[in-house]
């Protein structure tokens, strides 16, 4: 398999599954040996800012000497942007190897219910990070949180950047409904950090955190950054608070 052939095969996978849920991703990860169980993961969700917060967290940990894994989407130019280690794009040869691994694992699935593109790429990323023994992984959700393929993980921290009306056809028509989907990344006794400001969204996040006995910190400050915009100062404060906890 060549790199162009691997990319073509990945793009031929379905974008959306026939039914929502984590079953396919969990099954695929199980066949791969559950690579996420070997990783220290910070799971980041939110309508806006999650890519920026992931990048900030990655920079902080890498500069402190940790080997970082970064999983974000979508990519801008190259598929390889989605999976990075110490800010270096995944090599083409590794994409080929990971794709061949996934092709073999997909034989375990019925023809009418194969994993989607994002489910496969999520497990590819987790496998790559485990193979390369990353110290910390910054994992960005694709869509929502509760039913997102990345939500098979149990992280060391959950981060919710912001809540706004977006993807209503998938996540709900109100801020509270969307907040419920984003708060779905909260896991039992895993600390949660949030820069969400709307009272109705905060109430949802607080309720889910209490149900999971998870310590919750709302970050309302701003941090100094060279990036332009109040939202980036808030993102920087959220990243700094998460690291310091």
UniProtKB/TrEMBL annotation:
Transmembrane segments: none annotated. SUPFAM superfamilies: MurD-like peptide ligases, catalytic domain. GO terms for molecular function: ATP binding; dihydrofolate synthase activity; metal ion binding; tetrahydrofolylpolyglutamate synthase activity. Its cofactor is Mg(2+). GO terms for cellular component: cytoplasm. Residues 44-211 form the Mur ligase central domain. Keywords: ATP-binding, Ligase, Magnesium, Metal-binding, Nucleotide-binding. It catalyses: (6S)-5,6,7,8-tetrahydrofolyl-(gamma-L-Glu)(n) + L-glutamate + ATP = (6S)-5,6,7,8-tetrahydrofolyl-(gamma-L-Glu)(n+1) + ADP + phosphate + H(+). Its EC number is 6.3.2.17. PANTHER family: DIHYDROFOLATE SYNTHETASE-RELATED (PTHR11136:SF0), FOLYLPOLYGLUTAMATE SYNTHASE-RELATED (PTHR11136). Belongs to the folylpolyglutamate synthase family. This is tetrahydrofolate synthase. It comes from marine metagenome.
